[in-house]
Amino acid sequence: MSLPPKPASRPDRVSLWRYARLFRQDILSAQPARLYRAWMAEFKTPFFRSYLINQPELIKKVLKERPDDFPKSERISEGLRPLLGNSVFLTNGAAWKRQRRIIDPAFEGGRLRETFPAMWDAAEAAAARLETRTGQIVEIEAETSHAAADVIFRTLFSIPIEHHLAQAVFDEFRVYQRSQPLLNLAAFVPLPRWMPRFFQRRTKSSAARIRRLIAELTHQRMAEIDAGTAPDDLATKIMTTADPVTGERFDADEMIDQVAIFFLAGHETSASALAWTLYLMALHPEWQDRLAEEARVLDVCDFSVMSKLRLSRDVFREALRLYPPVPMMVREASCPERFRDREVSTGAQIVISPWHLHRQERLWDNPDGFDPTRWQTENGQKCGREAYMPFSAGPRVCTGAGFAMVEGPLILSRILRDFRVVAQPDRVPVPVAHLTVRSDKGIWLGLERR
Question: Residue 449 pairs with which residues in a beta bridge?
């Protein structure tokens, strides 16, 4: 079986109005086909310019060499700030650096070993839920969303998804997810500030409900910390860590902002990645069987098993290449630049697209093909260093990248150890961008007991 189709790319030239209409439907299909082979593309409007950069040298300059000169675009906040407030995902400069100094210690290598039992329990719970669905056609995105949310609540607050507050956040987030595209229209299409924004009222009300629930969890944990009864989990670690520079800790409002992004980043992206990985396994049963054989080591909860899940890790990496959960990132030029003999003015939007970079025809061997063995080849290793960024890159690389690379292969292996997933030829999913890359009508797979 072949891969599901890429979104139908638009013609290379369309009007701004046509682009806006396409974008509102789906940002992936709004992009021209030539971006899979271009090093750089300029989008002109009467208001200002956007540039999509697809060349490793330019991306390195923006994300790694001079990140302070290319801060996150303020236009991103127009759609996400109602949920994320001033979280680490949206801030820039000194505020962002302070937040990372407090957050990063919670995700250091040693903490992965400490959080592993919670991930293991979430994987076991996911398998138990699937046990009741054998012999059925299952919408797998719903199952991976459930599992990923369970991981977040177990590792962050030491509560399972069945806890009433965790379940309420999860239920409300499903409403939010479908009401909000990846970013608002203004983040990619350079429209003037006075033009109306889509999804605003519905998205804001849903975000407010999520934040109220997160606030309840946060205040409960602060009370437990004061009483000396708090469990030693990620929330406690972050709330009790002082900035080594200022000595300050997060107050309640700041912590609510951070929990919101932990849930969005940790739950939404992992759910997307796992769903597409399972679909790829359904398309490639020979790989599915190899992972099931490898997963026989999952008999005792021991962090050392992760070193034995090499095939699962390579398969998960390949799924992240083909279907990066966050397909596009936006930065803003804070000073005049020159990219590939083009003048880039101050305030111009710089778009970096893992979706296109991971399939760049000039870089990757067999860019649209599913091949987990590529990571052992010279081309795959070179591209892995220079043209692979499912978690971004540079100082702003996702704090939870290591966390995700344990969670994903673990849950994938645990599911495939006991179950076989079967593709449905009459239900071929087409990737679209909501908050992350999801299927237009869900990913439906047959579920069989091994």
Answer: 419
